[in-house]
Design a protein that fits this description.
This protein is mainly alpha-helical and 152 residues long. Helix content is 75%, strand content 0%. It has helices spanning 10-15, 19-33, 43-88, 100-146. α2 (19-33) packs across α3 (43-88) and α3 (43-88) runs antiparallel to α4. The longest helix is centred in the C-terminal third of the chain and has 47 residues, at 100-146.
């Protein structure tokens, strides 16, 4: 018997903060809390520029997360309204069923909303991956400027 892989939950992946995001946030919080001496050779300005870019990347990731939460909330509300309407159109155990066309239309709308939700989650997942790649590049640049050899 082979194990079945669980479905990929793109929604959870969009909302979860990666270890890279956590590390970058700690770096920015640490740097903003402590005043750093500016070096005579201009390294302080370069550090500041990279740290500002890291902060912008973190802000964009947060904005993506917020956008996804808003879109997801709106889709859930729509689904709830449709399910409520469907519940009110249950067929009676007797007599003719003259509401089957309306039920069918509502069920199709639910399917459309599910497809829309998957599409939005996949698109936001791709955007998040791109932002994380940008953040990884910036963090590596910051490590190189610090002269870290151990990769942290």
């Amino acid at each position: 018997m082979t194990a079945v892989n669980p479905p990929i939950d793109l929604v959870a992946r969009v909302h979860a903060r990666s270890p890279l995001e956590i590390e970058a946030r700690e770096l920015i919080d640490q740097r903003s809390g402590a005043r750093r001496a500016v070096l005579n050779d201009g390294d302080g300005a370069v550090f500041g520029m990279v740290e500002r870019e890291i902060a912008v990347a973190l802000e964009e990731l947060g904005s993506l997360r917020g956008l996804h939460e808003d879109l997801d909330r709106d889709l859930v509300r729509s689904e709830c309204r449709i399910r409520t309407d469907l519940h009110g159109l249950r067929p009676l155990p007797y007599g003719p069923d003259d509401k089957s066309g309306v039920r069918y239309a509502l069920k199709r709308r639910l399917e459309e909303l599910a497809r829309e939700r998957r599409g939005i989650a996949a698109e936001l997942h791709v955007q998040r991956r791109q932002q994380l790649e940008r953040l990884a590049t910036l963090m590596e640049r910051h490590r190189q400027l610090r002269g870290d050899d151990d990769g942290r």
